[in-house]
Amino acid sequence: MSPNQVIVLATPVFLLLIAIEFWVGRRRGRNTYALADTFNSIGLGMLSRIADVFTLALRLGIYVWVQDHAALWNNDAFWTSPAGWLLALVFYDFLYYWNHRLGHEVGVLWAAHVVHHQSQHYNLSTALRQPASYALLGWVFYLPMALAGVPPLVFAVVGLIDLLYQFWIHTEQIGSLGRFDRWFASPSNHRVHHAVNDRYLDKNYGGILMLWDHLFGSFEPEDPKEPCVYGTRKPLQSWDPVWANAEVYAGLARDSARTGSWGDRLRTWLRPPGWQAADVAVRWPAPAFEIATVQRFDPPTTRGARALAALMFVLLLGGVAFFLWTADARPLPGNLAWAAALLAGLWAQGALLQGRIGPGLVLMLLSAAVATLAAAEGWTVLHRVFKPLTMLIAIALVLRTDGRGRGWLLVALAGSLAGDAFLMFDGFFIAGLASFLLAHLAYIARLKSDAPWFADRRALVAVGAVGLAMYALLWSGGPWSDGLPAGLRAPVAAYVLAIALMASQALGRARVHASPAAWRVATGAVCFMLSDTLLATDRFLVPLPARDLLVLSTYYAAQCLMVAGLLREGTTQGA
């Protein structure tokens, strides 16, 4: 049984304990839960386990290689004895302490670990809030166990024990446990660890034992007179699971690029979180932290949005459980398709609860995710239902608005719907091509209705050059094929011209409007061009691995971005 399958079996226990903690908190008048925060924390846990599917083999593979080739002491009989198991657990906990401590003291390591600390609430759901990028560097800390000859099975089991132990200490419903608090990780100790108070900051790193904190000077008991304030000193202020994982990396990259010193560019990643080079601190000073000004992030949501988010949570939980249970037997392209669909659902749930998009766009995104997954998994009937349904939802969204250019947008979506329908069946490629050509022309007309022709000439030249190069490659076939059939050269040329003009107009329009919505539309147009390039490459040049995932994910990204952007620029009623 894989570690991910163990997590699936443990999940009902986690959820039951969360429910009990919620009930106890309500009974005591000390509820520590908020719906959106809880969904966000558990959702980030789901995303972390999804990422683990693609990294676990690599991390264990490195461990196994080091243990096989560089172990200083090979004695499986000892390590699998009771004393060996206990020593391995203590050994792991010691290494975990330093992994955890440096995760707070080194910027690039904090960029991963920060996810676990972003919640401004403290409850059992916070324990499940884990980073997706942990595997980038976290595995390095445990190589001493491989050098000591600890067998991979023992390493994996004690690591899982250390992880599962830490679940119960994420609660405010259990107070001080007396002497236990001094020597073992406990709710009281770990509340201190999650606090941003000056007194508590960067304390109590132990996973199971507090021994390491006593030895290395990082232990701090909880003081009832100074309540813990949770979160991070630079609050996330978002329910976006992608941004939650990328936020600190983006900040480090920005500060690293801003400094004029090559040494400081490296130091930005290696110094403690919040460190800035002198020239960066002068021009872009970070605001000082004031604990008195901390406010919980809690954007208002409607009852309908909360109900839809709850339904999505149940479906996502089931989808992630099924994915984790079956991932080892599924080829990589299939796992990538599942991961993409689940990520789309998690992002849509967060955007809904934050008020960034409405229920209509959520349904469009979910339908697009199912259509893409169904195509990748070969679920033909499901694909033929959800592919047209996605465009029908988009059309319904536009029909509920009365914004500028609605007619052209409806024509574009109707053409896309027809193209989708034709391309699902053999023998209708020309009809599908013609339908999408009509859709692109309608998009061009809509984009021209509120902007001059090709306002960014550099974008026109660049996009035109890409389109021309792609058409030349399709014509010749390069080293892979005989190129376009003679009867398709003119239709494909017209299509390439139309989509290049659409992308160029969208980019120029974005420069004119200079709004986030206009740039979403431009990004969507570029995604449309990319999707068609992938489709043409697969059909006329060389078969692509994971073709359905590549083509459909970029196609639906294009449609969702363009619809969302154009609706946001007009009226957002119903979106």
From TrEMBL:
Pfam family, one: YhhN
Mode of membrane association: Multi-pass membrane protein
Locations listed in the record: Endomembrane system
Every Fatty acid hydroxylase domain range: 85-218
Domain of life the protein comes from: Bacteria
Keyword annotations of the record: Lipid metabolism, Membrane, Oxidoreductase, Transmembrane, Transmembrane helix
Statement: the UniProt record of this protein carries the keyword Zinc: no
Transmembrane segments: 6-25, 78-95, 139-165, 305-324, 336-353, 360-376, 429-447, 459-476, 488-507
Family in the record: Belongs to the TMEM86 family.
UniProt protein name: Lysoplasmalogenase family protein
Classification of source organism: Bacteria, Pseudomonadati, Pseudomonadota, Betaproteobacteria, Burkholderiales
